[in-house]
Design a protein that fits this description.
It is built from 10 helices and 11 strands. The chain has 289 residues and is of the alpha+beta class. The chain folds into 3 domains: 95 residues, 2-Layer Sandwich (Nucleotidyltransferase, domain 5); 87 residues, Nucleotidyltransferase, domain 5, CATH 3.30.420; 78 residues, ATPase, substrate binding domain, subdomain 4 (Actin, Chain A, domain 4). The strands form 4 sheets. The chain has a 4-stranded mixed sheet with strand order 8-7-6-11, sandwiched between helices. It has a 3-stranded antiparallel sheet with strand order 1-2-3. Strands 4-5 form a two-stranded parallel ribbon.
Length: 289
């Protein structure tokens, strides 16, 4: 996307880093590195991530990696796909192929093997990550994958659930101690870390504790939260996850009863309430998780 693209302009307001206009209206990310101000294109940042992933894989496998298959969101256009390929090249990788993320998820569950036994399969991939949410409807027939429709929300994910917990506990701290920590970045950062941990714990237990020593002005913050309360705080967001599912099915012109498999991707799909809402929507269907 160009720097002047309206979506870049609106997203910039939410990012903790600075973005400026570079050559040919290309968005450039401004970073302070070793006391110097540097500018990087998005694909350069992406290549750093790929380089790190390559190093991690090499240290685990014990040999050098030259080739890679890189996945991208199904809605990426040609220039976004090319930029991803360029990022791989900058990282020193030979990118054999760019494939769609929902296709990769379906392959990971071996659904391409199933379809060869059963004929055409309709697969809904529900991908709820840390910051984004994507729903895709694929058809698989004889090993051929076709993306029929995509939907989602580029500003919905685990961070939003964390924010609800943070706001809840900021209010509780104000109520208990008559102090407002909302303007203290360090206190909020420490509280957010504790909230994220609590959120994960609540996927496997029904109650957990939050403990942050000397959170603000030497005050220790100890409290508890139940899964039911967490669900209550986030219910509107969980319900919001179902809208793109309906839109995706509408766009693909497929009734939900004709979906053979529902595949869960992304850490936030571990939340029991999200699974329950999705399972209820598909009339009790078993989810691939």
């Amino acid at each position: 996307r160009r720097f002047t693209d309206p979506s870049v302009q609106s997203d910039m307001k939410l990012w903790p880093f600075k973005v400026i206009s570079g050559p040919a209206d290309k968005p450039m990310i401004v970073v302070n590195y070793k006391g110097e101000q540097k500018q990087f294109a998005a694909e350069e940042i992406s290549s750093m991530v790929l380089t790190k992933m390559r190093e991690t894989a090499e240290s685990f496998l014990g040999y050098q990696i030259k080739n890679a298959v890189v996945t991208v969101p199904a809605y990426f256009n040609d220039s976004q796909r090319q930029a991803t390929k360029d990022a791989g090249a900058i990282a020193g990788l030979n990118v054999l192929r760019i494939i769609n993320e929902p296709t990769a998820a379906a392959i990971a569950y071996g659904l391409d093997k199933k379809s060869s036994r059963r004929g055409e399969q309709n697969v809904l991939v529900f991908d709820l990550g840390g910051g984004t949410f994507d729903v895709s409807l694929l058809t698989i027939e004889e090993g051929i994958f076709e993306v029929k429709a995509t939907a989602g929300d580029t500003h919905l994910g685990g961070e939003d659930f964390d924010n609800r917990l943070v706001n809840h506990f900021v209010s509780e701290f104000r109520r208990k101690h008559k102090k407002d920590i909302s303007g203290n970045a360090r206190a909020l950062r420490r509280l957010r870390t504790a909230c994220e941990r609590a959120k994960r714990t609540l996927s496997s237990t029904t109650q957990t504790t939050i403990e942050v020593d000397s959170l603000f002005e030497g005050i220790d913050f100890y409290t508890t939260i139940t899964r039911a309360r967490f669900e209550e705080l986030c219910m509107d967001l969980f319900m919001k996850c179902m809208d793109p599912v309906e839109k995706c099915l509408r766009d693909a012109k497929i009734d939900k009863s004709l979906v053979h498999e529902v595949v869960l991707v992304g850490g936030s799909t571990r939340i029991p309430k999200v699974q329950q809402l999705l399972q209820d929507f598909f009339n009790g269907k078993e989810l691939c998780k």
